[in-house]
From TrEMBL, chain A:
ABC transmembrane type-1 domain: residues covered: 83-281
Classification via Pfam families: BPD_transp_1
PROSITE patterns: ABC_TM1
The UniProt record lists the keyword Membrane: yes
Name under which the protein is recorded: Sugar ABC transporter permease
Primary location class: membrane
GO terms of molecular function: ABC-type maltose transporter activity
Family label: Belongs to the binding-protein-dependent transport system permease family. MalFG subfamily.
Membrane topology qualifier: Multi-pass membrane protein
Gene Ontology biological-process entries: maltodextrin transmembrane transport
Automatic annotation (TrEMBL), chain B:
PANTHER family: MALTOSE/MALTODEXTRIN TRANSPORT SYSTEM PERMEASE PROTEIN MALF, MALTOSE_MALTODEXTRIN TRANSPORT SYSTEM PERMEASE PROTEIN MALF
Domain ABC transmembrane type-1 as annotated: residue spans: 291-513
Entries under Pfam families matching the protein: BPD_transp_1, TM_PBP2_N
CC per GO annotation: maltose transport complex
Role noted for this protein: Part of the ABC transporter complex MalEFGK involved in maltose/maltodextrin import. Probably responsible for the translocation of the substrate across the membrane.
Compartmental location: Cell membrane
Name listed for the protein in its UniProt record: Maltose/maltodextrin transport system permease protein
Length: 295, 524
C-alpha cells in the first residue's frame, strides 16, 4: 500500500510538472531537431572526404579537414577571393549605410523643418520597392556611368557598393530614428550652451550614445549585403571579383552534386563569422527588432 | 510629445578652422570629380544627363556653403544615393518598360545598320591584294597597307584608311613600320591570330564601301557586304537573292513576309510590352499562374511563420520553464545562418536521387520534392518556415513581454480561461504592434528571390510557355529570368514591364495595409 501511494504521488507530481512545463520541453526538443538538423548536416558534409551528395548522408562517419584546404586551391573558383570580396563589400557598404542613415536620422529626430513628415512617409514607402526589382535599370545605369568613370562601371566592386548605398535610407533610418528619439534632448541643449556646434554634437555626443543601434543596423546591413545575389550577380562577371553568394551559387549549380562536401565546407566557413557575430550581438538585435515592433 | 524646436538659426557660432578646411577640401574634391563628369557628358552630347548633373552640383554646393538649410546638410548624402540608385532606377525601369530594349535591340538605328553591314562581309572576287603589316599601339591593332599602286595607308576598326607618308619601307616598297607603333612580327601574329583575323578595317567612312580583312596577317583583301543599304529608301537589299528588307517601324529591317535581319535597334513601343504580358496567350497563362502563386506564397509564408513563431513564443514564455534561454538561442540559429546558403543546403537535403531526406529519413524513397510542380511548392513553404519562423518568434516574444501584467491578471480574476485570455486579450494587443511587421514580411516574401531561385530555380519548367517560367517562379524570379536568362535571350523591355506591374501591386497592398493598421499616424 505504501509503495502504491508513493508511486501515485510521484505520478501526480509528474503529471503536474508535465501539464505546467514538461510538454513545453517536448516542443522545445522538436524545435531543436528542426532548427539544428540542417546545420549539423552541413557541418558533417563539410568534414566528409567522400565529396558527393550521396556520400554525405552518413553523418559524422569520417572527419577530415581536406575540403577546407581544397577550397583555397581551385584557380577557377577562387573561394578566398570571394570571401575577402564579401567582407570588403559588406563591410564598406554597412559602414556607409550606418553613416548615411545616422546623418538622416539625426536630422529627422533633432530638427523641425518643412517636409519632415512627408520625408519620413516617403522613406517608408520607398523601402517597399526593393532595389532588385530595378535591376535592369541599375545594370544599364552602371553601364552608362562606366563610360565616364570606369571605376564605377560594370564589373566594379566600388560600383556595387555605391548601388547598395542607394538603399541606405529606408528601414535603417527608421530603426535609428526611433532610437535617437530616446536620447534626451537636454543633452544637446547642454552641449549647445557650452558652445558646441551641431556637427560636434552629432559626432562626439550623439553618435556615442546611440552606439548600440548603430551596431544593430551595421550588422543587419552586413548580413543583407552578404545575402544579396541579384544585383551582385548582374554587375560582377569576373570570377575573382564576385561575392560568396554569386560564387557559391554557381559553384553548386555548375557542378551539381559532385563537389557537395566542398560546397559544404565553403558554406560553414561563410556562415560561422556571421553567426558568431549574430549570437554575440543577439541581445541588441532582439531589442532593435522589437523596438520597431513595440512602441 | 512636444519637442522644443531646434531651429537652424540658433547655430550661429563661428566654425573652427579645422572644420572649414575639411569642408573646403571635401567639397572641392567632389566638385572636381563632378566637373570632370560634366565635361565628358558635354563631349558625348548627353544633354539630359548634363543638365541633371549640373543642377545636382549647384544644389550640393549651395547646401554646404549656405548657413541655412541645416537639415539638408545631414539629409543630402543619403538622398543623393537614394535618388540616383533607387528613385532614378525605378523611373528608368518604367521608361525601359515602354521600349523593345533587349537582345538584338540594344542600340540606335545607325549602330544597327553598321553592325549589319559589318556582319555580312564577304570577300570580293578578284579584288586587288594589299600588302599588309599589322601594327600595335597600346593593345589596339591597326593595319598598315600598301596598295598595288604604292600608296601607303593606315587604319583600324574605329577609323577608316588614311594615307600616311612617313612609313618605313622595305626594299620591295612594302611599308613595314611607322613611328609610334610596334610592327607585329610573325610570332606576334601567330599569338594573336584570332583577334587579327576578326579585324575589319573600313575603307572609307561609308560602311557600304567595304572593309579590309586579313586571313594571314601579311596580305589583306577587300570584303564587301552582301547586304546593301539604300540611304534614300532606308532599306537593305540582299544582293545575292534580291530580297528587300524595309524598316516598318518595328525596330528592325524586315521583309513583307516577316523575315528579319539582326540586330535591330531600340525604339519606343508604347504599351506593347504590357499588351504582350496580358494579351499573348503563351505569356498570359504562365503569368497569371505566377501572380497567383506569388500571392499564395507570400500570404502562406507570413501565415505559417507567424503561426509557428507566435506559438513557440507563447510556449516558451512561461517563467516556470527551465532552460528557456537555451531553446531560444537554438531557435534563432536559422535566422543567423545566411539565407542563400540555407536554400542551397535544403536543395541538397531534398535532392530526389541523393538527398538525405529521401535516402536516409525515408529509406531510399523516390519523392520528387523539388521536381514535382505541387510538391515543389510544398517544399518551398517548408524551407521558408524554417527560415522565417525565428524572426516571428523573436518579435512575438518581445511583444508578449510588453503586455502589462495587470491586464492579464484582471482578465484572470474575471474568470478568463487560458485560450479565451489569449484569443480575446493577448492576441488583439499583439496585433497592434505586430501588424506593420507582418505587412513588411509580406512585402519581403513577395520578392523573396533567393529562396525560390536557389532552391528550385523556379522549376520544374513549364514547357508550353513562351517565356522561361516554372511552376514555383514568383514574379521577381520571372523578371530576373526574362531580363538575364540564358534560355530565351534577354528582353529588358518585357522584364521591366513585369517589374512595373510588381511595383504597383506591392505598393497598393502596402498602402492599404498601412491604412488599416494606422501605423502611419504614430509619426510625430
Amino acid at each position: 500500500m505504501i509503495t502504491s501511494t508513493v508511486s501515485t504521488g510521484r505520478r501526480s507530481s509528474f503529471r503536474k510538472w508535465f501539464t505546467a512545463t514538461g510538454w513545453r520541453h517536448l516542443i522545445g526538443v522538436a524545435v531543436i531537431i528542426f532548427c539544428a538538423f540542417p546545420l549539423l548536416y552541413v557541418l558533417s558534409s563539410s568534414l566528409n572526404p567522400n565529396g558527393t551528395l550521396v556520400g554525405s548522408n552518413a553523418l559524422f562517419q569520417e572527419i577530415d579537414l581536406g575540403n577546407y584546404i581544397d577550397l583555397f586551391n581551385r584557380p577557377s573558383q577562387p573561394y578566398g577571393a570571394w570571401f575577402l570580396n564579401t567582407l570588403l563589400i559588406g563591410g564598406i557598404s554597412s559602414l556607409g549605410t550606418v553613416f548615411l542613415g545616422a546623418l538622416a536620422a539625426y536630422a529627422f529626430s533633432r530638427m523641425r523643418f518643412t517636409g519632415r513628415r512627408v520625408g519620413l512617409l516617403t522613406l517608408l514607402l520607398v523601402q517597399m520597392f526593393p532595389q532588385l526589382l530595378a535591376v535592369v535599370a541599375i545594370f544599364l545605369l552602371l553601364n552608362a556611368i562606366g563610360d565616364i568613370f570606369p571605376i564605377l562601371g560594370l564589373d566594379s566592386q566600388l560600383g556595387l557598393i555605391v548601388v547598395y548605398l542607394g538603399g541606405a535610407l529606408g528601414v535603417n533610418t527608421y530603426l535609428m530614428y526611433g532610437f535617437f528619439n530616446t536620447v534626451p534632448l537636454s543633452i544637446d541643449e547642454a552641449a549647445k550652451i557650452d558652445g558646441a556646434s551641431h556637427a560636434r554634437i552629432f559626432f562626439t555626443i550623439i553618435l556615442r550614445l546611440v552606439a548600440p543601434i548603430l551596431a544593430v543596423v551595421g550588422l543587419l546591413s552586413f548580413i543583407g549585403t552578404t545575402n544579396e545575389f541579384v544585383i551582385a550577380s548582374v554587375l560582377l562577371s569576373d570570377p575573382s571579383k564576385q561575392t560568396l553568394a554569386v560564387g557559391l551559387y554557381q559553384f553548386v549549380s555548375d557542378e551539381t552534386s559532385k563537389n557537395w562536401s566542398l560546397f559544404a565546407a565553403g558554406a560553414v566557413m561563410a556562415a560561422i563569422p556571421v553567426m558568431a557575430l549574430f549570437l554575440y550581438l543577439q541581445k541588441y538585435i532582439v531589442n532593435g527588432l522589437t523596438a520597431g515592433a513595440v512602441k | 510629445m512636444t519637442r522644443p524646436s531646434t531651429q537652424p538659426s540658433k547655430y550661429k557660432e563661428t566654425p573652427t578652422l579645422k572644420a572649414v578646411l575639411i569642408k573646403i577640401i571635401a567639397l572641392g574634391l567632389l566638385d572636381a570629380v563632378v566637373v570632370y563628369a560634366l565635361f565628358v557628358l558635354f563631349l558625348k552630347e548627353s544633354w539630359v544627363a548634363f543638365v541633371l548633373v549640373a543642377i545636382g552640383l549647384v544644389a550640393i554646393n549651395w547646401i554646404y556653403l549656405t548657413r541655412r538649410a541645416l537639415p539638408a546638410k545631414y539629409l543630402a548624402p543619403g538622398i543623393v544615393f537614394l535618388i540616383i540608385f533607387q528613385l532614378f532606377a525605378v523611373g528608368y525601369s518604367a521608361y525601359i518598360a515602354f521600349t523593345n530594349f533587349g537582345d538584338g535591340h540594344n542600340s540606335t538605328r545607325e549602330d544597327a545598320i553598321d553592325s549589319i553591314v559589318a556582319k555580312s562581309l564577304q570577300r570580293v572576287e578578284n579584288s586587288p591584294t594589299y600588302d599588309l603589316t599589322v601594327l600595335d599601339q597600346l593593345g589596339t591593332y591597326s593595319f598598315l597597307v600598301t596598295e598595288p599602286d604604292g600608296t601607303v595607308s593606315l587604319g583600324n576598326v574605329e577609323s577608316p584608311l588614311e594615307p600616311v607618308d612617313n612609313a618605313q619601307l622595305s626594299g620591295s616598297g612594302k611599308a613595314i613600320g611607322l613611328d609610334g607603333y610596334t610592327a607585329l612580327d610573325f610570332a606576334g601574329i601567330l599569338a594573336n591570330q584570332q583577334a587579327i583575323s576578326a579585324l575589319a578595317v573600313p575603307l572609307t567612312d561609308n560602311p557600304s564601301d567595304g572593309a579590309l580583312r586579313t586571313p594571314d596577317g601579311s596580305k589583306a583583301f577587300l570584303y564587301e557586304s552582301t547586304l546593301k543599304y539604300d540611304e534614300a529608301a532606308g532599306s537593305f537589299t540582299d544582293e545575292t537573292s534580291g530580297t528587300v528588307f524595309i524598316d516598318r517601324g518595328n525596330g528592325q529591317f524586315e521583309t513583307a513576309e516577316g523575315e528579319t535581319i539582326q540586330p535591330g535597334w531600340k525604339i519606343d513601343v508604347g504599351f506593347a510590352n504590357f499588351a504582350r504580358a496580358f494579351g499573348e496567350e503563351e505569356i498570359r497563362r504562365p503569368l497569371i499562374g505566377v501572380v497567383i502563386w506569388t500571392f499564395a506564397f507570400a500570404i502562406l509564408s507570413v501565415a505559417t511563420t507567424f503561426a509557428l513563431g507566435l506559438f513557440l513564443a507563447v510556449v516558451f514564455n512561461d517563467a516556470r520553464m527551465k532552460g528557456r534561454r537555451f531553446y531560444r538561442v537554438i531557435a534563432i540559429l536559422p535566422y543567423a545562418f545566411p539565407a542563400f546558403l540555407s536554400a542551397l543546403v535544403w536543395a541538397g537535403l531534398m535532392n530526389r536521387d541523393f538527398g538525405f531526406i529521401n535516402q536516409v529519413l525515408l529509406g531510399g524513397a523516390d519523392v520528387p520534392w523539388l521536381t514535382d510542380p505541387v510538391l515543389a511548392k510544398v517544399s518551398i513553404l517548408i524551407v521558408n518556415l524554417w527560415l522565417g519562423f525565428p524572426y516571428m518568434f523573436l518579435v512575438s516574444t518581445g511583444a508578449l513581454q510588453a503586455i502589462p501584467d495587470e491586464i492579464v491578471e484582471a482578465a484572470k480574476v474575471d474568470g478568463a480561461k487560458p485560450w479565451a485570455l489569449f484569443r480575446h486579450i493577448k492576441l488583439p494587443l499583439l496585433m497592434v504592434s505586430l501588424a506593420p511587421l507582418l505587412i513588411s514580411s509580406f512585402a519581403f516574401n513577395f520578392n523573396n528571390f533567393n529562396l525560390i531561385y536557389m532552391l528550385t530555380g523556379g522549376g520544374p519548367r513549364d514547357i508550353g510557355a513562351d517565356v522561361n517560367v516554372g511552376a514555383t517562379d514568383i514574379l521577381i524570379t520571372l523578371v530576373y529570368k526574362v531580363a538575364f536568362g540564358s534560355v530565351a535571350g534577354r528582353d529588358y523591355g518585357l522584364a521591366s514591364a513585369f517589374a512595373i506591374i510588381i511595383f504597383i501591386v506591392v505598393a497598393t497592398v502596402s498602402v492599404i495595409g498601412f491604412r488599416q493598421t494606422k501605423a502611419l499616424e504614430d509619426l510625430n
